[in-house]
Every structure is written in structure tokens, then in C-alpha cells.
Design goal:
686 residues, elongated, alpha+beta, 22 strands, five-stranded mixed β-sheet, 17 helices
Length: 686
């Protein structure tokens, strides 16, 4: 919301407060979902998706659910206080849409987000925060005051928690949130205790002083933190929830100092990971982890609970690199980068990694948790849930299989291979990712529950194929294929295929003999390949020939190749002879040569060679050869009939100087035909 708009609504909202009551009455009368909402925000979102309400009505209902849930229409109201997560991103989304709303809706929203008036306040010990609270009424804080200093212990504790949150984040290099210039009675950062079903929230109020999209605002904390999920805080669940909330919501305030217009999924995972950096003993964020570890194929860029659960991405960045990586990322967005580019720049400039390479590595970390923890990855990996592979294979070979899990953008799928007691030796696992995405792939070889070796595939970047061999696979308890979809923008699920088989010492490779890819129109050409046998075993290869345009007669040849030797194969490329000018110039085809061991069909390789039709200079009559007939046509064109050269006049430019048939071309052609047979046209590739 612009600064002009902010001043306008601050001056007019108090006159329009009556609109709130009127609009709520209208909303009460709207049809909506029949079920009673345990999560009011989710129920409101479903009703909006069902086109029961407008986006402006949705915004008003959402804010009502957050700041005044008792005023919600009954159908959206929870039957009891149902503790829920941070509401900051819902508020931020509405704030960013404000300019599109009607003046009446803007006034109602402003009234809902207006700072509350509280009975008392206290300044935090370090002097940065002013905490506002009530001791009577619907928003009262617990009145327990063990130290008898006249301030409820809940307020004292949260004041200290806020100071700690500030100190830790400033030590990481973050800037503090912008000043509110006295809106809370002074220039201290204001925190309000309120009755709300949420842990808390951070409210953006207006533009900050910088040129980028910063914003000042205030925090709201739950008044008593009763009934929230358990955590591991030594002082109990209530103070643990309070600690986590102070760290989380104040980090949102710091994010607003950099850029309020970033993706909400990242802002939530970032704020949730900061809970660990500030109050590592609490682990309230463990409550979200089943959402991440139970859905590894869901995109990292998913909003909602999954974003909170994805805080492990932030912890990976902090533990693998250092805790300032994300702070440098926020510094990058101030110059106009989005969060993706800014994080990539931060990793590349300091560590030589890209965000893609880091995320791919992260997907191996997330498998090594719980009982699989080896002490080399997440510091608290033993406490995290375990990802379940999408399928387990224990009989080989596994023919080419479409994976059960189809990973979305920035997610992964896991396929497990365990012991077939009838097999020993080398297990080859092949991978093929959909060409429409970018991929990384690994295998995790586990000799026991908590001992792992990780190996990365070297994938072909054009078709995302590759393979890895596991020697003495029977020595491993399990082998897991990790397939990582690294596409940023296409969040649809994408397929990959794999196969696994026992591999031998046999090998095959193909060497392409010719270096150029041209074929003359109307001319058959011999293309040479060498079938090579790098192994120490004699082999016989089935060589399969094909191409896209029918220029090669599809065939299968059997070629014997001695150990360490090679056998040449000649392939005839025969483009069609179309009259009067043969095959169109510039037409292309793709020649495929595949060699498969006839002894071990899993030993194979394939090469593809692009071929394009080109003009043969000097072949004026388009017969496919340069002969006396071409010389006769050129002489007739230059000295006798002066008739144009057909079918392609440019074929007469034998010396390739000017695109025209001239005396110099006649001289060069005579030289080629009668004197120096090696002096072909410099334009002819062969």
C-alpha cells in the first residue's frame, strides 16, 4: 500500500467504522459451506474457491477470523479455540492487495488492523520493545507474578524473548525493522497481547523509509499460549510456544525491513527456521515436520503448512554453509532480485554452489534422518521423521519402470533397492528424467541403518539420462535412488523412469568416424562408425540403425569385436532423389546407431548424429556427381545460350566467391576435372 493511501486511510477509517458492522451482517447472510470450520481461514478459502464470496469479502472474513474470531459468521467459526499457526502471511497478502479494494472495504480492513488500545505497557529490558497488555477483559494475560515486580510473568518473559530474538538476529547481520515514528506512543517497537487462535502475527502498516519495498508495523502475541501443540522447552509448552512465536514473528518484522513482496512460502520457512537459530531448545517447529517428510514429492514452493515444515531447507543452508546465507539473500532482494536469484547469487559468490546444486544435496540430507542419522548431516536429524521410499525392489532385473512418485518442482522421489539373495555382483541403476524438466539424481548406499555412501549421477543434460554401478551390491543393506526435480517455474508433477539389473564386465562404445554432418541432396553417402569393445571379453554386438526421415534403411547388423578392439561399420545415407531438384536443401534428420551386447542385453550404448542436406557446388545438373555434363552447362551459360542455370543457379559458383557463375568458376571446375582432382569446391564439405 502506498504512503499516500496509508495516510488517507488513517484519516478516514474512524468515520467509516460503521461499515464494519454492516459488512459483517451482509457476510452472515451469504451462503457458504455447510461444515463447521475447525480452521476458519481454510473454510473461508474453500468458500471463496467455490465462488460463494468475492475477494474483498474473503479478505474481511479472514481478518475477522484473526483479530476478532467471535465476530465471524457462525458457519466459519470454530466450535472452540483451535490453536493455529502464524497469520502473518494472510495479513500480508491482504495488505498487498489493498490498492485494488473499494474504499469501503479498505476502511473496514484498516479498522480491523488498527492497533489495539491496551490498559498497560512495559519496556523490554534492552529497551527496544514496548509490550502492551491487559489485566482484565477478554484479552487479559495470565496474572501470575512470581517475582512480584508488578508485571505479569508472561509479559516479563516475552519481553526477554523479544530482546533475545533481536540480539541473535542482529548478530547474524540483519537490520532491525523500520520505526513506526511514534504510532504506539513512542518510537519503540510495539508488541500487543491479544486473544487470538493464532500463535501471533506481524502487521505491516505502511511504507518504510527506504527506496525498496520495506514496511513498518507491529507484532501481536497470543495472550496466554494455552492449548498449543507440545514442544521440548525445559520450561514447558506454554513458554516454549511463546519463545518460538517471538523469534518467528519478529523475523517477519525484519523481513518487512527488506522486502514485503517476496514469496510467502519462503518467508514462512525462513521465519520457522529462525526459531531454531534463536531458541534451539524449543523445537516447536517439529510439529510441522510430518507434512514435509510425509510428502517429499511436494514442491518446496508450496504455501500453507508445508511451508512451515520446509524450515529444514533453511536449516540445511545454515548448517551446510553458514547461518548468514539467508541474510545475504534478503540483502540481494533489496536490489530487485527475486528470492530464487538472490539465494543463488549468495551461494555462488561465497561458496561456488548454485541453488540447484544445494537443493539436490539437501534432498539426500532429508533421507538420512531418524534411525538413519549418521551424525554427518542435520544436527538434529535423529529427531526428525523418516521419508518412506515410494517403492521397494528386491528382485532383479527391474525393467524400465515409471516411478510411482512424480516429483513437483523442487522436490524429490525416493526408490529403494534391497537384496535379492539369489544375486551377487554389480548392480547397475539407470535413470531417465522427463526432458521437460531439469534433474539431479543420486544413490545412497547404506551398509547399515546409520552408515551411508552418497554418489551422484552424471546426467546427460539433453535427455537427463545416466547410470551408476554398485559394486558388490550384496554388501549393502539398501540402495536408494534419489530423483530431484530442479525445475523452478513448472510446479506440475513430472515423471522419471529407472531400471536396475546385474551388470557384467562387458562394455561397448561407438566412435563416430565422420566429423561433418552434411549430406548432398540426391547423393548417397557412406558414414563410418567404429564399434569398440573396451572390455577384456570377446563380444558380439547387435547394431541397430534408424533415422527420423527414412534416409537410412532400418536394419540390425551383427558385429563381432575382439577384446580391446574395434570393428568398422559403414552406413549408407540415401536421401530421396526428388525431381527436378532432388531433396530440399536445409532438410535435417537424426541418425541413431545403437549397439547392444548379444551376450548381455543390459550392456549397450547409443549415439545420435544430426544430418542436414546441403548443396554440392559444381553439380549444376543435380545428378549427384560433378562431371563433364556440368562443365558443358557452365560453358553454355557463359558463352553460348547465356541461359540461366537450373535447377539451382548458385551451384555454378564453384569457387564460392560471389554466389554467381563466372570465368573463375569455369577455371576452377576445369582444374578439378582434368588437372588437380583434389581441388574440389572450397564450399563442399566432403
Amino acid at each position: 500500500m502506498s504512503k499516500v493511501a496509508t495516510r488517507y486511510f488513517q484519516s478516514t477509517a474512524r468515520h467509516l467504522f460503521g461499515l464494519l458492522a454492516a459488512l459483517v451482517i451482509i457476510l452472515v447472510g451469504m451462503p457458504c459451506c455447510a461444515e463447521v470450520a475447525h480452521d476458519p481461514l481454510a473454510a473461508i478459502e474453500r468458500a471463496y474457491d467455490a465462488r460463494v464470496m468475492t475477494v474483498e469479502q474473503k479478505a474481511v472474513l479472514q481478518l475477522t477470523a484473526i483479530v476478532s474470531p467471535a465476530d465471524l459468521p457462525t458457519v466459519y467459526r470454530a466450535e472452540a479455540r483451535v490453536p493455529s499457526r502464524c497469520a502473518s502471511m494472510t495479513i500480508l497478502d491482504i495488505y498487498k492487495r489493498m490498492d485494488s479494494f473499494s474504499p469501503e472495504t479498505k476502511a473496514v480492513i484498516f479498522k480491523l488492523l488498527q492497533r489495539p488500545t491496551c490498559q498497560k505497557s512495559v519496556v523490554s529490558p534492552d529497551g527496544f520493545f514496548r509490550l502492551h497488555y491487559d489485566t482484565v477483559g477478554g484479552h487479559f494475560v495470565p496474572l501470575v507474578d512470581i517475582d512480584e515486580n508488578g508485571i505479569p510473568d508472561m509479559v516479563d518473559k516475552c519481553a526477554s524473548f523479544c530482546d533475545t530474538s533481536l540480539a541473535v538476529q542482529l548478530a547474524l547481520g540483519y537490520v532491525p525493522p523500520p520505526s513506526d515514528t511514534g504510532l504506539g506512543g513512542d518510537t519503540l517497537y510495539d508488541v500487543y497481547f491479544r486473544e487470538t487462535p493464532y500463535y501471533g502475527y506481524c502487521v505491516p502498516e505502511g511504507d518504510g523509509p527506504e527506496l525498496w519495498d520495506d514496511s513498518f508495523g507491529y507484532l501481536v502475541l497470543n495472550r496466554d499460549f494455552e492449548g498449543f501443540p507440545p514442544n521440548s522447552d525445559p520450561e514447558g509448552d506454554v513458554l516454549g510456544a511463546a519463545r518460538a512465536t517471538c523469534a518467528h514473528e519478529f523475523h517477519h518484522a525484519i523481513q518487512y525491513a527488506y522486502d514485503i513482496d517476496q514469496d510467502t512460502w519462503f518467508m514462512e520457512l525462513d521465519a520457522t527456521h529462525v526459531e531454531d537459530l534463536v531458541f534451539d531448545q524449543v523445537d516447536d517447529n517439529y510439529n510441522y515436520l510430518p507434512e514435509f517428510f510425509g510428502a517429499p514429492s511436494k514442491s518446496l514452493m508450496t504455501d500453507g503448512i508445508h511451508a512451515y515444515a520446509s524450515f529444514v531447507w533453511g536449516l540445511y543452508l545454515a548448517e551446510k554453509f553458514d547461518p548468514t546465507v539467508i541474510r545475504r539473500t534478503w540483502e540481494g532482494v533489496r536490489t530487485g532480485d527475486d528470492i530464487y536469484d538472490a539465494l543463488s547469487d549468495s551461494l555462488q559468490s561465497t561458496y561456488g554452489w548454485t541453488q540447484d546444486s544445494a537443493f539436490a544435496d539437501f534432498c539426500t540430507w532429508t533421507f538420512i534422518t531418524g534411525l538413519r542419522d549418521d551424525g554427518l548431516h542435520f544436527a538434529e536429524a535423529a529427531e526428525y521423521p523418516q521419508i518412506s521410499p515410494s517403492i521397494n525392489h528386491h528382485l532383479y532385473p527391474v525393467d524400465t519402470t515409471v516411478a510411482v512418485g512424480k516429483p513437483q518442482a523442487y522436490s524429490a522421489c525416493y526408490v529403494e533397492f534391497t537384496r535379492d539373495w539369489s544375486k551377487t555382483g554389480r548392480l547397475r541403476i539407470e535413470f531417465n528424467g522427463a526432458d521437460t524438466q531439469e534433474w539431479a539424481a543420486f544413490i545412497i548406499k547404506s551398509v547399515g541403518d546409520d552408515s551411508h555412501e552418497i554418489e551422484k549421477y552424471s546426467l546427460n543434460s539433453t535427455d537427463w539420462t545416466g547410470y551408476l554401478d554398485v559394486e558388490d551390491y550384496e554388501d549393502y543393506q539398501r540402495i536408494v535412488l534419489v530423483a530431484v526435480n530442479l525445475s523452478e517455474f513448472d510446479t506440475t508433477s513430472s515423471e522419471f523412469t529407472y531400471c536396475a539389473h546385474m551388470s557384467t564386465d562387458r562394455a561397448v562404445s561407438i566412435e563416430v568416424g565422420a566429423t561433418e554432418v552434411a549430406v548432398y541432396s540426391t547423393v548417397n553417402r557412406q558414414y563410418e562408425f567404429n564399434m569398440e569393445n573396451p572390455s577384456i571379453l570377446f563380444d558380439s554386438y547387435d547394431v541397430v540403425l534408424s533415422d527420423d526421415s527414412g534416409w537410412v534403411q532400418s536394419d540390425t547388423l551383427q558385429v563381432d569385436v575382439p577384446p580391446g578392439g574395434q570393428t568398422p561399420v559403414s552406413i549408407t545415407i540415401a536421401p530421396p532423389h526428388l525431381t527436378p531438384i532432388g531433396m530440399p536443401l536445409g532438410h535435417s534428420s537424426q541418425l541413431s546407431v545403437r549397439a547392444v551386447s548379444s551376450i548381455d542385453p543390459w550392456t549397450f550404448t547409443e549415439v545420435e548424429v544430426p544430418i542436414v542436406s546441403v548443396l554440392q557446388y559444381g553439380d549444376l545438373d543435380y545428378t549427384g556427381k560433378i562431371t563433364m555434363g556440368d562443365l558443358t552447362l557452365l560453358i553454355d551459360h557463359l558463352f553460348i545460350s547465356l541461359a540461366p542455370l537450373e535447377p539451382i543457379a548458385e551451384a555454378g559458383d564453384f569457387d564460392c566467391l560471389d554466389g554467381l557463375a563466372t570465368m573463375s568458376d569455369l577455371t576452377a571446375l576445369i582444374n578439378f576435372l582434368f588437372i588437380n582432382l583434389d581441388q574440389n569446391s572450397p564450399c563442399n564439405p566432403y
